[in-house]
Amino acid sequence: MEQSTTTDADMTDQQARGHFRLGRELYAQGRFAEAAKEFEVAYGLSGRSSLLYNVYLAYRDAQDTANAARALDGYLLANPEAPDHEHLRARLAALKEILAQAEADAARQREEQARAQQQAQEAERQRIEADQRARSAEQRAAQKPSRPWWPWLVVGGGAAITATGVVVGILAKSDADELKGECVLSPIDGAGTKAPLMEGTSCAPSIDLEARRDSIQSQALIGDVVWISGAVVAATGLVLAFALPDVYPDQESPPVTASCSTTECRASLRLSF
After folding, report:
1. In terms of domains, do 115 and 212 share one?
2. How many structural domains is the chain composed of?
3. Rounded to an integer, what distance in angstroms lies between the CA atom of residue 82 and that of residue 75?
4. Residue 38 pairs with which residues in a beta bridge?
């Protein structure tokens, strides 16, 4: 042990002296950590700052850098005029540098451990997802797929809409023929040949030609719009019927709605991917 700054004769308190003596015996036996604790007890009882040097030496030899630096720092603060002060200050700086490096290494190790844990968690998540996909694929392979049936509802709805448009067109044609039958070349004698439905056609005074013509044309236009819309809906249904993939029992068929009014037809389809 390096020369201590405290001697047995310096210890006036009997209890403090006992701990100091025990600390020296433990130090001589190589039990440095225990010796440091006895020196610290002696320092606490006596208040002699010189004992901190003994504490420092014991902790240093016990490889307890943090406590060694603490004890040496306390000793230098309490004894600024101590012998070899500059040398001890250099030792303290070296100890603090070792502690800073150890803290940096510990922080880096914690970061590496956290990164490794995160990577392990991500790998486990990917493994679980892969297992779920594999089970899903096995279940899918065991199921018997079928062709989606609902596109044929779209085809049927389009066909019904087309038929409605055709009926409206036939009714418009029938009204036009009826109007032609009511108009003749000579409305006075009522003779003979039916006139074409055009400007200048002679009709009986009781016939409102303009109003009848507008009604027939509107009806024909509605019929054209309706049957064309129905044809588009039916064609869409056919395309979906052949283009969509097979349906498995665990899949839910997407809802299909279609409706028509006197001016337009609408169809809605919701698909999930």
Report:
1. no
2. 2
3. 9
4. none
